[in-house]
Amino acid sequence: MKKATKIATLAIALVVIMAAFVVALDNGPFSTGTADTGDDTTPPADNPKNGEKPPSEDETPPSATTITASKTATGFWEKRIVYSWDVQKCLADDICEMQIEPGEYAEISYIIDVERSVCVTEVYGVRGHITVTNTGDCPTEDLLICDTIQYMGECGWVDHVTIEVDVSAKPVLQPGECYAYPYEVTADHGLIGIDYCNVASVTITNFECNVGTAHGVEVCDGFTLPC
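The structure corresponding to this sequence follows.
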């Protein structure tokens, strides 16, 4: 009887041990509550404790730059001669219709009248070069140069005429590059003996601290018209 009781007790103890073992397997290996990272102590790249933000694929490199400009201005007053030609051609004889049979030939004389007319115009204005230098680290974007003739009015300088300078020869300036853009501004009439000012506005759309809008520099030079 005692032997049977001992066997039953051992069986119950064995069942309890096996049940505990199964529970331990379900809960995974014994742990302190933190993930096992092995011997690697390097924090993840996106861990804010690093103080560094991982690079984003959407980030674009900076494109801001700066420019400087200088200019020359020489006033001119010129007489320009334009020739026009009027040419008329007619038959020498009063022939309205002629029929030439196969194998025959005929001589026809023409009279050509040419008349030349001369048109003389007086043109005044200013011409020179506008030199732009890229002083930054990125290429320029949307380079635009506008040149304006101003004259001194009763209350200050007054805009007289403005043109857009052709920059197609060098539309983009690389870092450190400079180019002299020629220009000529003309008008229909002028006043000899008064002071003029020529103002050039040079803008780009990636000027430092103003990326996305047209921003730049202005440069001016005075000139007079020759008598």
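The radius of gyration is 45 Å.
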